Amino acid sequence: MLCWGTIAFMPLIHNLQTLHLVKGSGVLPLTWPSAAAWILVGIIMIALNYDSDTQRHRVRAVNGKCSVWGSQARVIRAMYVLLPAYPQYSRISKPCFRV
55: closest CA among 18, 93, 90, 89? Predict the structure, then answer.
């Protein structure tokens, strides 16, 4: 989720005001209700981003022995090698949001 927030959401939100200024208010009217809607969407996306980071940290801290959204956390245990003869291990939490 953090990756999505950095790659997709932030460039959209940061460029929205520039797009509005370039196109002019006649082509892309930004009324108070639409501005409030954009702010609300931004706040929700930031909250989801922080919540997913919190879930990931909690799952890694207890090695996947916890529940996320009412079900057992799912973890991928991965091994990678940076230097020969020094394997590294990581726990990657699978997406836990339920719709």
Answer: 93
